[in-house]
Design brief:
mainly alpha, 5 helices, 8% strand, elongated
Length: 102
């Protein structure tokens, strides 16, 4: 753990030449979540309406209809690549299943 901290807090030389440059510590900026614009959300909704769902989404919907939430999450994580995105997609697909049941 100490080795990792040393690597992150190394000094960088800024300037024309490394001899004349000023030593500074690099600061990592926090990553911000981007909110999708209304136009982009509308386009996504329109494409889904016209084209239907992707094959992996169809399978996830089928798993959710059979109350296999944990298995759905595992499946979506494998396909999407991120647990956070998989949870978000599962919630979105779960809402669709609830709407179809009513």
């Amino acid at each position: 753990i100490l080795l990792l901290n040393r690597v992150m807090n190394y000094e960088t030389v800024v300037g024309l030449k490394s001899v004349k440059g000023k030593k500074v510590t690099r600061i990592e900026a926090p990553k911000k979540e981007k909110k999708a614009s209304a136009k982009a959300a509308f386009e996504k909704e329109l494409i889904t309406e016209v084209m239907g769902y992707a094959p992996y989404e169809k399978r996830a919907l089928e798993l959710l209809r059979n109350q296999r939430d944990k298995r759905t999450l595992k499946f979506l994580k494998k396909r999407i690549g991120s647990l956070k995105r998989a949870k978000r997609r599962r919630d979105k697909l779960n809402e669709i299943v609830m709407q179809t049941r009513q």
